Amino acid sequence: MRAHNYYAKYCPQCDRYCAWHALSASKPQILNCYAGLSFFSVPLVENQQVCGFIVCGKVRVKNQEYKAIDLMNIEPWENDTALRKAWWSLKVIDNNRLAAAVNLLSFMVNSFTSNTDTILVENLLTSSETDYSLSRHEKKRIAVLRYIEANLYSKLTLDSVAAHVCLSANYFSRFFKKRQGINFKTWVNQRRMHRAGELLRNTDQTIDHIARKLQYAQTSYFCRVFHATYHMSPQMYRRHR
């Protein structure tokens, strides 16, 4: 991405967003860049003054559960065959390993900061879990995303997912939009389209079978949603795999 003539200029934008997001949250932040790769930022603060940021990544994680950076008016990178092949060739990293990296770097930052009472990044290794000090809301959000990912072949409704995390449907709808940046239905469609791409690349299942498997009653509608996502038909996508 950083070497691409068109997309290279967007990478620094993602870096800056991640850095300032960590500072505003007063703790390390893991985000997804516009290409769906995960990275994190740790602010460096000395005597209550921001000295800089450490930005690490970007990696392809097992569970896509982090907030995505939405850049306006950017052409879909999936249309570039070379970038698409490079993305799928990346090694998949377990989310817990990424969280552990956040914890380790946070500990190192604390160790080399003279005034640990005033820095914004706390020693996160005091927790028995590698959750980089997740708030109650963040834990619930991640539980929702993992539940969706594990049930893409099942019927996923606002009511059923809300019930899974013990929230009312109305509250859950607002909660999801606020925490994830997009509404529930759009996220489910995005994840199903992502899975559809995997099935088209890695299996010989028919398009009709994939559509039914992902809970689309009509193959024609599935194809329209797929085209809107990848800017090509499922048939063409499979030929380019």
TrEMBL record:
InterPro entries: Homeodomain-like_sf, HTH_AraC, PocR_dom. Residues 142-240 form the HTH araC/xylS-type domain. Signal peptide: none annotated. The keyword Cytoplasm does not apply. Keywords: DNA-binding, Transcription, Transcription regulation. SUPFAM superfamilies: Homeodomain-like (SSF46689). One of its GO terms (molecular function) is DNA-binding transcription factor activity. This is Pdu/cob regulatory protein PocR. It comes from Salmonella enterica subsp. arizonae. The lineage of its organism: Bacteria, Pseudomonadati, Pseudomonadota, Gammaproteobacteria, Enterobacterales.
